[in-house]
Amino acid sequence: MTQGLLIAAFLVTGWMATSAQNSQDPVVMILGKDSVTLSEFKNNFLKNNNLNKTSEKELREYIDLFVNFRLKCAEAKELRLDTLPSLQRELRGYRSQAAAPYLTEKSVNEQLVNEALEHLHWDIRASHIMRRISSDASPKDTLAAYTEMMNIRKRILKGENFNDVAFAESDDPSARPRYDKEVMVYSGNKGDLGYFTAFNMIYPFEKAAFNTPVGTVSLPVRSPYGYHLIMVQDRQPAISTWTVSHILITYPENATAKDSAGTKAAAQEAYRAIRNGMDFEAAVKKYCTDEGLTLNGGKMDPFPSGRFEGDFMAPLYKTEENEITPPFETRYGWHIVKVIKKEPFVETPGIRGEIRQRINRDTRSDLGPEKLVERLKKEYKFVQAPMPKDKKAVSPVEDFYTIDSVLLFKGRWKKDSFHGNREMFRFADQVVRQSDFAAYIEKNQFPEMRRISIHELINHVYPLFVRRCILDYEEEHLEEKYPEFATLMNEYKDGILLYELSERKVWGRSETDSAGLAQFYETVKDQYMYPVRAEVVSYTMGNEKAYRTFCKLMEKGTELETINKKFAKKGQIITARKQVLQKGEDKNFDRDCPWEILMQEGNAVITKADEFRYTTVTKLLPSPKPLDEVRGTIITQYQNLLEKEWVEQLHKDNDIFIDYDTILGLIR
Questions:
Q1: Which of 530, 531, 541, 533 is nearest to 615 (CA)?
Q2: Any bridge partners for residue 27, and if so which?
Q3: Distance, CA of 137 to CA of 145 (rounded, Å)
């Protein structure tokens, strides 16, 4: 006994010492094996509440909810629900989504949103000349392509026509005509890309175009497709949607100069007729040679600015609503367009969120992670493995130039076929070797790149591998670097576990335990009663004589079966209709039925001589509604009972200590 007292005294002394050490952040709850500090409780409370606006009653209610939540989570972990593969998969999915904002440079993302929003305010018309070159081309080939583009730019600056040079020099096949069996099916755009706005072009091209003044030619711009020279022809406030009517007078096939002159003259005649008062739709019927336009009275479906080529769109920007353009020419013929409506780009309340989503699907989304990797390389002291002093030695990356490209391009290359394991680079506490790169290559065989050499492929893959290693390491250590991320993941985990346990203890059981539900219904069915109702039986006869006879027989107390037999012998039919009604359900019945008498006496008779109708009304006493009629409500109530019983059992099974004075001191 003395020994027990000594042990108890020691434990109390130890607890007091610990409390003194943690006086700044005392333990305010002990829930079974779980303990909660004041700061932990306060942080949870402040997520959705304000201490300055919280009453003592509200804080006590929150304490009860918090305690129940922690007890449930503890039980879920005790049952090892966190080991279920399905819940682990769900948690990994949540973690991947939650980690995304931490794996990009946030300042870059906001800059991209602001830039895209600015671009969306404008429609730009531009032409380009492209020199195709692989994104993994050697420095020598890259420099050669760049030099060639600079020389082409010099020719244009000296006076050569940009579009003629594009026709002759561009590697973009759309710049020149396309033939099918010696028949031209596409005349070529000479590099003219028409009007576009943000997200219509790949990002490097878009950025360069918006930074190039109208009428000037950019320096060579690098994109995944190669180098581009961009000439900006026009810049207009953005129009999201156009609604127009259109007269098109097409050139005849194999048109001569005389045909072309006739087409132009017809367009000028149509324009004069409209200016002199002819209705536009009437002019469409008379002059338009395009059958589809004629059938619709010239009206076109609403379209965005980038739908049609630049020569068609340019005159529209200069035309106000409800005005018509002068005749203008494109490669299809001559046009007259009535601009019915221009819908300008408008910044909606959710536009920034929409832009972020589009950025995530766009190549510019790589900029944020790229900037992050640059910063992390410095933070983690990233270094490439030093080269051997032997001048004939090759780098660890170059060792991979000898792997079997045939198997690689067929997706069948195996990492075991590569036997080297030299160090490639190191950062933080990681040393990355050739075996790691070989495993990455095996997983990512890149069959779509089979047209390039193995040197180009390895040079393309290696930077992606470095980036992946650094981002994977960063993601693995997010909880250590960012306490708020660790808190968020704990909340996700607790939420998933609590949902699964609640499904087992409450929700699922209430749906499947039909016997338990029926038993519970018996205990609460008196809460779901029908009100006083009336059973209404209406008898309708075919004429007044039959009606009067029926009334007399009913007044004498004759049985209904006897009345039916008498009427049947005379070939007369009595139609009976039975209903159960309550007050307010049928306005006609409420008007005719003496509900006050019915409530007192329990029955009534309503006669309608002009309708040959005799109605008996019997009061029905209140009765419980059947389970099927109130099942949804009963299930909810049953769930509340199961929840209550569950919480009560948790409180019985766990020793609980709550320091109310300290917690309530948060608002006192």
A1: 541
A2: 37
A3: 10
Rounded CA separation 299/515 (Å):
67
Give the ranges where 158-275 is alpha helix by DSSP (H): 162-169, 203-210, 257-275
Q: Dig out the tokens for 281 from the structure.
A: 């739709």
> What is the greatest pairwise CA distance in the chain?
128
Map out the domains of the chain as residue ranges.
Answer: 121-344, 380-464, 530-620
* N-terminal to C-terminal alpha carbon distance within the chain: 43
CB atoms within 10 A of CB 279: 11
Token couple for 607? 């006669």
In Å, what is the CA distance from 452 to each residue of 135, 137, 173?
10, 9, 20
- β-partners of residue 400 are none
Residue 326 and residue 269: Cα distance in Å, rounded? Answer: 11
In Å, how far are 266, 309, 340, 657 from 288, measured between CA atoms? 10, 20, 18, 88
3-state SS assignment for residue 601: helix
C-beta separation of 601 from 502 below 8 A: no
Tokens (6 digits) for 153: 């730019």
**4 vs 498: CA distance, rounded Å:** 40
pLDDT at position 448: 59
Cα 385 from chain centroid (whole Å): 43
Are 472 and 102 in contact, with CB atoms under 8 Å apart?
A: no
Kindly report the number of other CB atoms within 10 A of residue 25's CB atom: 12
User: Along the chain (668 residues), what's the average pLDDT of each consecutive run of 10 residues?
Assistant: 35 38 80 91 89 92 93 92 91 89 85 94 97 79 89 95 95 88 78 95 94 95 92 96 95 78 93 95 94 92 94 96 95 94 94 90 84 93 87 87 87 91 95 96 74 80 93 94 90 91 89 88 89 85 90 89 88 88 78 73 81 85 84 91 93 94 90
- pLDDT reported for residue 269: 95
Give me the amino acid identity at 653. Answer: D
Q: How far apart are CA 537 and CA 659, in angstroms?
A: 68
Q: Looking at this protein, which amino acid is placed at residue 79? A: L
The torsion defined by the Cα of 407, 410, 414 and 415, in degrees rounded to 10, comes to: 90
CA atoms of 82 and 502, how far apart (whole Å): 14
Q: Tell me the CATH number of domain 121-344, given options 3.10.50.40, 3.30.70.60, 3.30.360.10, 3.40.50.2300.
A: 3.10.50.40
Q: Rounded distance, CA 496 to CA 88, Å?
A: 9
pTM for the model stands at 0.60
**H-run or E-run covering 436:** helix 434-443
